[in-house]
């Protein structure tokens, strides 16, 4: 498991749910088929952002490590079953039609941990989504066969801004706790991007 959370220069960081290769490939196929135009996100960059930490100086890295150490959450399954588009800022996305209750609890816990660690807390209502394309023309919503994504960990990502686009580097991963021994649960409730106003 990657653990590159060392002190050093300022790094542009965010916390995310990071998909495995199977989920990335399944989502990328849907994007190629259902997103009519725009600049598709490379499969290796697909993710769900939980919190953007911004430019973090090296001396603040112990506080970043504390976020993962203090975060308590359970494993769950995220069912990506709806593709939509925000006309502004012209972003196509895939998301769960209903946010699992356990993910909502994890988000609330994360906000508390961020606040205690001295990081800014997101002001917008949480609506988990995976960006598929940018500069996308508006298009209709599509309900799709769910891509079932078992969520087992939270990932700390460093963003490298390069001329060719963003490149992401996994720095740390913190495991979530198994909920039961019978498989993944997907209790539902909460907000999806398509329901936001």
From TrEMBL:
Signal peptide (UniProt feature, chain positions): none
Domain of life: Bacteria
Reaction equations catalysed: a 3'-end 2',3'-cyclophospho-ribonucleotide-RNA + H2O = a 3'-end 2'-phospho-ribonucleotide-RNA + H(+)
Enzyme class: hydrolase
MF annotations from Gene Ontology: 2',3'-cyclic-nucleotide 3'-phosphodiesterase activity; ligase activity; RNA 2',3'-cyclic 3'-phosphodiesterase activity
Span of the annotated motif HXTX 2: 129-132
Motif (HXTX 1): 47-50
Keyword annotations of the record: Hydrolase, Ligase
Pfam hit, one: 2_5_RNA_ligase2
UniProt-annotated catalytic positions: 47 (proton donor), 129 (proton acceptor)
Known role: Hydrolyzes RNA 2',3'-cyclic phosphodiester to an RNA 2'-phosphomonoester.
Similarity annotation: Belongs to the 2H phosphoesterase superfamily. ThpR family.
Protein name: RNA 2',3'-cyclic phosphodiesterase
Gene source species: Nitrococcus mobilis Nb-231
